[in-house]
Amino acid sequence: MRNKALAMWAVTLVLVTCAWAGSESVLYNFDSYSGDGYYGLSGLVADKSGNLYGMTYEGGAGYGAVYELVNSGGTWKESLIYSFTGGTSDGEYPQDASLVFDKSGNLYGVTYQGGAYGYGIVFKLSLSGGKWTETILHNFAGYPKDGSYPAAGLVFDAAGNMYGTTYEGGAHNYGSAYIMTLSKGKWTEKVIHSFAGGNGGDYPVGGLTVGKDGYFYGATIYGGATYNEGTVYRLFEARGAWVEQSVYLFTGGTNGTYPYSGLTMDAAGNLYGTTYEGGANNYGTVYKLKAGSNNKYTHSVLYAFKGGDTDGAYPYYAPVTLDSAGNIYGTTYEGGSQYDQGTVFELKLSAGKYKESVLHSFEDTSGNDGYDPRAGLLLLNGKLYGATYAGGTEGVGVVFEVKP
Q1: Do residues 338 and 312 make contact, with C-beta atoms less than 8 angstroms apart?
Q2: Is the omega angle on the peptide bond into residue 144 within 30 degrees of 0, that is, cis?
Q3: Strand blocks (E) in 257-318
Q4: What residues contact 88, with CB distance under 8 A and at least 6 apart?
């Protein structure tokens, strides 16, 4: 087991040739042999200075790490700001959950396993005197009273409460949604919904999206009565009790199957997401749920992936990213022109219709690029930033930038 203090790592930008519309640069190669974190599953977040933060599934002290990337004169330098130590006293193996900042600059996140009961934790990282310190805010206790295995990250509401989901656990062991509230300096967790299968859905991998009027939206991989192909749901509090309602039940086939990703909401209240399979070619879809009157939504498939060497295939956990013009960006886990190693795609909006372009096909035959992206994209100053699970000079993932 490694337990090395990681100094700042100089990173040489590796430009990757791309035959598509965008250009990609590798900003950092994770290194499994040096005490670094590796396997970049989580998406990235940025602070006010444009520094990037993310998590790796393994590495560091052995159970995953939180890292920071700082751009200094055009060169990106990486440092580990926290290494998970695992066991009953710390978290283990953060999955696809992105970190989130509060207004004071503290970072919050979850790990999929570890903690007092082995079912994962909610943690906080605070910066003081140039050093980040971790505080465990909650140890998930699992079925039947608590959630277990949180895969998705946290979101804040306007009052400063945090919300998230767990993949399993809850009263029926089909997953849960929970709230974290702060009172007198102490955070308290409460399960606000236990998924029960059927039309209510089961096994939420994606997190919650804060909507208008106190609604919170999410998706489950399975559920939906007859077809069991997944659901989109919403939660809201009424008279002190939390209520779940089904927004859409996937029927498989061309409508899409297995919505692993979380949801993204635009200014008009429309929801966007992906399905891992289904669509016209069974390689997954990008879909839209258009907001109508009386909180009703209309589903439409914006794009069905074609797979093979011409297009992406199987968008995984990654939620899509919207820009101010309504264009949509995301990643696929497979597909693309370079040996089926994944893509970055764009759906460009023009005259009310979307046209898809592959901005980058990942290619790692020479060790100069990542592959198998599972996380979402961060849009910052007109550029897209993300991480890959594998590839790069050491074969354990990279952080990359794509200019659309």
Answers
A1: no
A2: yes
A3: 264-265, 271-275, 285-291, 297-304, 312-313
A4: 114, 115, 116, 117, 118
Q: Whole-angstrom Cα distance, residue 47 to residue 49?
A: 5
Cα 379 from Cα 322, distance rounded (Å): 8
Question: At which residue do the structure tokens 């978290």 appear?
Answer: 91
DSSP per-residue string spanning 364-376: -TTSSSEE---S-
Which residues does residue 128 pair with via DSSP β-bridges, in sequence order?
131
The amino acid occupying position 159 is A
Asked if 235 and 207 touch (Cβ cutoff 8 Å), the reply is no
292's tokens: 């109508």
CA-based nearest residue to 287, from 276, 269, 274, 270:
274
Q: Please say whether the beta carbons of 204 and 221 come within 8 A.
A: yes
Q: Which of 369, 398, 370 is nearest to 37 (CA)?
A: 398
DSSP 284: -
Query: Please, are residues 115 and 140 in contact by the beta-carbon 8 Å criterion?
Result: yes
Residue 18 CA from chain centroid, whole number: 25
1-40 pLDDT per residue, tens: 333 333 333 333 333 333 345 799 999 999 999 999 999 9
Tell me the CA distances in angstroms from 79 to 32, 60, 75, 111, 361, one per residue in order: 14, 11, 13, 20, 28
What does the pLDDT look like over 116-146, one tens digit per residue? Answer: 999 999 999 999 999 999 999 999 999 999 9
DSSP symbol at 201: -
CA angle 346, 323, 270 (to 5 degrees): 95
* CATH class in words for 9-403: mainly beta
CA 338 – CA 270 distance, rounded (Å): 34
Q: Where are the domains of the chain?
A: 9-403
Token pair recorded at residue 266: 């635009």
